[in-house]
UniProtKB/TrEMBL annotation:
A motif (Histidine triad motif) lies at residues 145-149. Residues 51-160 form the HIT domain. The active site is at residue 147. PANTHER family: AP-4-A PHOSPHORYLASE, HIT FAMILY HYDROLASE. The keyword Nucleotidyltransferase applies. Substrate binds at residues 77, 149. It comes from Salinibacterium xinjiangense. SUPFAM superfamilies: HIT-like. Keywords: Nucleotide-binding, Nucleotidyltransferase, Transferase. GO terms for molecular function: nucleotide binding; nucleotidyltransferase activity. This is ATP adenylyltransferase. PROSITE patterns: HIT_2.
Length: 189
Protein backbone atom coordinates (compact mmCIF):
# COMPACT_ATOMS: atom_id res chain seq x y z
CA UNK A 1 0.00 0.00 0.00
CA UNK A 2 1.25 3.50 -0.79
CA UNK A 3 0.80 6.75 1.11
CA UNK A 4 -0.71 9.84 -0.55
CA UNK A 5 2.77 10.97 -1.59
CA UNK A 6 3.71 7.60 -3.13
CA UNK A 7 5.89 6.28 -0.32
CA UNK A 8 5.48 2.64 0.54
CA UNK A 9 3.57 1.93 3.76
CA UNK A 10 4.50 -1.09 5.85
CA UNK A 11 2.06 -3.77 6.87
CA UNK A 12 2.56 -2.93 10.53
CA UNK A 13 3.51 -5.12 13.41
CA UNK A 14 1.09 -7.26 15.40
CA UNK A 15 0.74 -6.25 19.05
CA UNK A 16 1.20 -9.86 20.14
CA UNK A 17 4.97 -9.53 19.54
CA UNK A 18 5.41 -6.79 22.14
CA UNK A 19 5.58 -6.99 25.93
CA UNK A 20 2.32 -5.48 27.19
CA UNK A 21 -0.88 -6.25 29.00
CA UNK A 22 -3.81 -6.26 26.55
CA UNK A 23 -6.52 -3.68 27.17
CA UNK A 24 -10.06 -3.27 25.88
CA UNK A 25 -9.31 -0.46 23.41
CA UNK A 26 -9.42 -0.84 19.65
CA UNK A 27 -6.79 1.14 17.76
CA UNK A 28 -7.39 3.05 14.55
CA UNK A 29 -3.94 3.02 12.94
CA UNK A 30 -3.54 5.94 10.56
CA UNK A 31 0.19 6.40 9.92
CA UNK A 32 -0.43 8.66 6.90
CA UNK A 33 -1.86 11.30 9.27
CA UNK A 34 1.68 11.95 10.50
CA UNK A 35 2.20 14.20 7.46
CA UNK A 36 -0.56 16.49 8.76
CA UNK A 37 0.66 16.42 12.34
CA UNK A 38 4.25 17.23 11.40
CA UNK A 39 3.15 19.97 8.97
CA UNK A 40 1.95 21.95 12.00
CA UNK A 41 5.35 21.94 13.66
CA UNK A 42 7.53 25.03 13.92
CA UNK A 43 10.01 23.38 11.53
CA UNK A 44 7.42 23.09 8.73
CA UNK A 45 8.02 25.43 5.80
CA UNK A 46 5.90 28.56 5.74
CA UNK A 47 2.78 28.09 3.66
CA UNK A 48 1.23 30.61 1.31
CA UNK A 49 -1.38 32.83 2.93
CA UNK A 50 -4.17 31.42 0.74
CA UNK A 51 -4.04 27.72 -0.12
CA UNK A 52 -6.75 28.21 -2.77
CA UNK A 53 -4.59 30.75 -4.60
CA UNK A 54 -1.51 28.52 -4.24
CA UNK A 55 -3.12 25.21 -5.31
CA UNK A 56 -3.59 26.08 -9.03
CA UNK A 57 0.13 26.96 -9.25
CA UNK A 58 1.08 23.42 -8.20
CA UNK A 59 0.97 20.08 -9.97
CA UNK A 60 -2.57 18.63 -9.89
CA UNK A 61 -1.50 15.58 -7.88
CA UNK A 62 0.34 17.65 -5.26
CA UNK A 63 -2.55 20.13 -4.97
CA UNK A 64 -5.21 17.36 -5.05
CA UNK A 65 -6.89 19.08 -8.03
CA UNK A 66 -9.27 16.77 -9.91
CA UNK A 67 -10.46 19.21 -12.62
CA UNK A 68 -9.67 22.70 -13.91
CA UNK A 69 -12.15 25.01 -15.55
CA UNK A 70 -11.66 28.44 -17.07
CA UNK A 71 -12.70 30.47 -14.01
CA UNK A 72 -12.84 27.82 -11.26
CA UNK A 73 -11.36 24.45 -10.32
CA UNK A 74 -12.19 21.38 -8.21
CA UNK A 75 -9.93 19.80 -5.59
CA UNK A 76 -10.17 17.30 -2.75
CA UNK A 77 -10.47 18.73 0.73
CA UNK A 78 -7.20 18.12 2.58
CA UNK A 79 -9.21 17.55 5.79
CA UNK A 80 -12.28 15.69 4.47
CA UNK A 81 -15.54 15.05 6.30
CA UNK A 82 -15.98 11.98 4.09
CA UNK A 83 -14.05 10.20 1.37
CA UNK A 84 -14.34 12.20 -1.85
CA UNK A 85 -15.10 15.53 -0.10
CA UNK A 86 -14.53 18.08 -2.88
CA UNK A 87 -14.16 21.86 -2.95
CA UNK A 88 -15.02 24.10 -5.91
CA UNK A 89 -13.06 27.37 -5.92
CA UNK A 90 -12.79 30.32 -8.27
CA UNK A 91 -9.22 31.07 -9.35
CA UNK A 92 -9.81 34.71 -8.45
CA UNK A 93 -9.28 35.58 -4.80
CA UNK A 94 -12.72 36.69 -3.59
CA UNK A 95 -14.11 36.04 -0.13
CA UNK A 96 -17.88 35.84 -0.53
CA UNK A 97 -20.53 34.69 -2.97
CA UNK A 98 -21.71 38.23 -3.68
CA UNK A 99 -18.18 39.24 -4.79
CA UNK A 100 -18.03 36.54 -7.49
CA UNK A 101 -18.99 37.38 -11.06
CA UNK A 102 -22.03 35.78 -12.71
CA UNK A 103 -19.61 33.85 -14.96
CA UNK A 104 -17.65 32.50 -11.96
CA UNK A 105 -20.87 31.44 -10.24
CA UNK A 106 -22.09 29.72 -13.41
CA UNK A 107 -18.88 27.73 -13.72
CA UNK A 108 -18.89 26.84 -10.01
CA UNK A 109 -22.42 25.52 -10.54
CA UNK A 110 -21.45 23.54 -13.64
CA UNK A 111 -18.41 22.03 -11.93
CA UNK A 112 -20.57 21.11 -8.94
CA UNK A 113 -23.01 19.24 -11.21
CA UNK A 114 -20.20 17.33 -12.91
CA UNK A 115 -18.62 16.53 -9.52
CA UNK A 116 -21.91 15.05 -8.31
CA UNK A 117 -22.18 12.87 -11.43
CA UNK A 118 -18.57 11.70 -11.14
CA UNK A 119 -18.92 10.89 -7.43
CA UNK A 120 -22.11 8.91 -8.09
CA UNK A 121 -20.28 6.96 -10.80
CA UNK A 122 -17.03 6.34 -8.91
CA UNK A 123 -18.24 5.98 -5.33
CA UNK A 124 -21.93 4.97 -5.51
CA UNK A 125 -22.94 8.04 -3.53
CA UNK A 126 -26.48 8.10 -2.08
CA UNK A 127 -26.66 11.84 -1.38
CA UNK A 128 -24.69 15.05 -0.92
CA UNK A 129 -24.21 17.93 1.46
CA UNK A 130 -23.41 21.01 -0.63
CA UNK A 131 -22.74 24.38 0.89
CA UNK A 132 -20.60 27.40 1.60
CA UNK A 133 -19.61 28.91 4.91
CA UNK A 134 -19.30 32.65 4.32
CA UNK A 135 -17.03 34.37 6.82
CA UNK A 136 -15.13 33.04 9.81
CA UNK A 137 -18.12 33.60 12.13
CA UNK A 138 -20.16 31.28 9.87
CA UNK A 139 -17.58 28.51 10.14
CA UNK A 140 -15.35 29.11 7.12
CA UNK A 141 -11.93 27.62 7.78
CA UNK A 142 -10.49 29.74 4.98
CA UNK A 143 -12.78 32.76 4.95
CA UNK A 144 -10.68 34.85 2.57
CA UNK A 145 -11.30 32.68 -0.52
CA UNK A 146 -14.72 31.54 -1.69
CA UNK A 147 -15.12 27.77 -1.86
CA UNK A 148 -18.07 25.41 -2.05
CA UNK A 149 -18.09 22.05 -0.28
CA UNK A 150 -19.42 18.91 -1.94
CA UNK A 151 -19.59 16.17 0.70
CA UNK A 152 -20.65 12.73 -0.53
CA UNK A 153 -22.96 10.79 1.76
CA UNK A 154 -24.00 7.16 1.94
CA UNK A 155 -27.02 5.58 3.59
CA UNK A 156 -24.98 4.04 6.42
CA UNK A 157 -21.89 6.26 6.58
CA UNK A 158 -22.26 7.42 10.17
CA UNK A 159 -20.40 5.68 12.96
CA UNK A 160 -19.58 6.22 16.62
CA UNK A 161 -16.20 7.93 16.09
CA UNK A 162 -17.51 11.47 15.43
CA UNK A 163 -19.98 11.25 18.31
CA UNK A 164 -17.89 9.55 20.99
CA UNK A 165 -14.27 10.28 20.09
CA UNK A 166 -14.47 13.42 17.96
CA UNK A 167 -12.74 11.40 15.21
CA UNK A 168 -13.73 10.78 11.61
CA UNK A 169 -12.59 7.54 9.98
CA UNK A 170 -11.78 8.15 6.31
CA UNK A 171 -11.19 4.77 4.66
CA UNK A 172 -9.23 5.82 1.55
CA UNK A 173 -6.04 7.79 0.95
CA UNK A 174 -6.36 11.24 -0.65
CA UNK A 175 -4.07 10.52 -3.60
CA UNK A 176 -5.97 7.36 -4.48
CA UNK A 177 -9.32 9.17 -4.39
CA UNK A 178 -7.96 12.14 -6.38
CA UNK A 179 -6.69 9.86 -9.15
CA UNK A 180 -10.00 7.98 -9.35
CA UNK A 181 -12.10 11.15 -9.58
CA UNK A 182 -9.71 12.91 -11.97
CA UNK A 183 -9.65 9.88 -14.29
CA UNK A 184 -13.45 9.72 -14.34
CA UNK A 185 -13.87 13.48 -14.97
CA UNK A 186 -15.24 14.04 -18.48
CA UNK A 187 -13.09 16.05 -20.92
CA UNK A 188 -13.95 19.70 -21.45
CA UNK A 189 -15.64 20.64 -24.70
Amino acid sequence: MKDYDGTELGEGEPASGFAAVPDSFQRLWTPYRMAYISSNSEKAPQQHDCPFCEAPRLDDEKALIVARGTLAYVLLNLYPYNTGHLLVCPYRHVATYDEATPQELAEIGELTQVAMRVLRETANVDGFNIGMNQGRIAGAGIAEHLHQHIVPRWAFDSNFFPIIAGTKAVPRLLGEVRAEIANAWPPRD
